[in-house]
């Protein structure tokens, strides 16, 4: 059975959240469903490592780790007892005040009000989804499976680290802590799309570090590694999103700063590892 690094990471994360879930089961009985889902996820990972998948199965194997994130992310809400665990927002807000002298996530849009920037930066925030997915699909459909595998591996490393922090150090973030911005600020299509998406799929405690920023940074770095023109296309979206999560009152500024550091650090570590060992990204090893 040849497990790829991304599959080993997924198994490790499933084991970690199962241990946390078992410890918190008495607090929230719904965690039992997370434990069942983790078992099924582990079985799926092991089945996907079979060598006789065929062309369609091999294609799905490249993509399913990204798809699994759609299940792993909402599980954070259950593990955090739907907001019943202690959040550490006061700690992060104290860091923010110590660094900036105020709280930019609460004051920036008020001191620099702009319908134009609200529209642009909410659009950049929503662009996060295609920035994550499109490079992987583009690499796969153009026969660059090595670049696609690299993107998936780097993304999963970053996401799963963030998710682990969300479970151990929950921070609700401005989306939960502060009143919504003024109606005029949100009266544009991108803002309505963002808030509609968050209303249907936001996990409590998932603010620090900003996985949106971290994943966008690492996705851009992985795109550069596979295609410099594609990487340059993603740079403006990544820069605008990093600013937008604070201006649009979605994350504390500290969340965004740590997200940039995490995304850049993850990419640099993987680049160092590839250059040092000469291994192909995502190469499978026998289990």
Give a written overview of the molecule.
- With 287 residues, the chain is mainly alpha-helical.
- The protein is built from 14 helices and two strands.
- The chain has helices spanning 5-24, 31-48, 54-79, 89-100, 104-111, 115-126, 128-141, 145-168, 174-177, 183-186, 189-201, 211-226, 228-247, 253-277, and strands at residues 2-3, 285-286.
- Strands 1-2 form a two-stranded antiparallel ribbon.
- The radius of gyration is 19 Å and the shape is globular.
Strand content: under 5%
- Approximate helicity band: over 70%
**Helix/strand/pairing class, anyone?**
mainly alpha
Kindly report the average pLDDT value: 92
Strand order of the largest sheet: 1-2
Radius of gyration: 19 Å
Alpha-carbon distance between the termini?
Answer: 6 Å
Report the biggest beta sheet as strand number plus sense, adding barrel if it closes. 2 strands, antiparallel
What's the total count of β strands? 2
H-E string:
EHHHHHHHHHHHHHHE
List unreliable stretches of 5+ residues.
none
Continuous helix count = 14
Overall outline? globular
Short description:
This protein is mostly helical and 287 residues long.
């Amino acid at each position: 059975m040849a497990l790829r690094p991304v599959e080993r990471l997924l198994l490790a994360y499933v084991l970690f959240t199962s241990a946390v879930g078992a410890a918190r089961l008495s607090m929230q009985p719904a965690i039992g469903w997370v434990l069942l889902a983790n078992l099924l996820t582990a079985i799926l990972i092991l089945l996907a490592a079979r060598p006789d998948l065929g062309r369609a199965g091999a294609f799905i194997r490249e993509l399913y780790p990204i798809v699994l994130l759609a299940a792993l992310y909402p599980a954070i809400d259950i593990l955090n007892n739907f907001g019943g665990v202690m959040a550490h927002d006061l700690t992060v807000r104290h860091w923010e005040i110590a660094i900036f002298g105020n709280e930019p996530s609460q004051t920036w849009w008020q001191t620099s009000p702009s319908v134009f920037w609200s529209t642009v930066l909410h659009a950049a925030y929503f662009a996060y989804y295609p920035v994550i997915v499109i490079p992987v699909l583009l690499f796969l459909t153009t026969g660059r499976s090595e670049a696609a595998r690299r993107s998936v591996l780097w993304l999963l490393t970053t996401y799963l680290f963030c998710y682990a922090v969300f479970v151990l150090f929950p921070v609700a973030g401005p989306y939960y802590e502060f009143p919504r911005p003024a109606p005029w600020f949100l009266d544009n299509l991108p803002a309505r799309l963002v808030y509609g998406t968050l209303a249907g799929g936001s996990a409590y405690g998932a603010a620090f570090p900003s996985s949106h920023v971290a994943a966008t940074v690492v996705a851009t770095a992985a795109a550069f590694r596979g295609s410099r023109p594609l990487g340059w296309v993603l740079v403006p979206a990544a820069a605008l999103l990093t600013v937008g999560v604070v201006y649009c009152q979605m994350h504390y500024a500290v969340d965004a700063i740590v997200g940039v550091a995490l995304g850049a650090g993850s990419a640099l570590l993987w680049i160092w590892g590839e250059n040092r060992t000469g291994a192909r990204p995502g190469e499978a090893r026998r289990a």
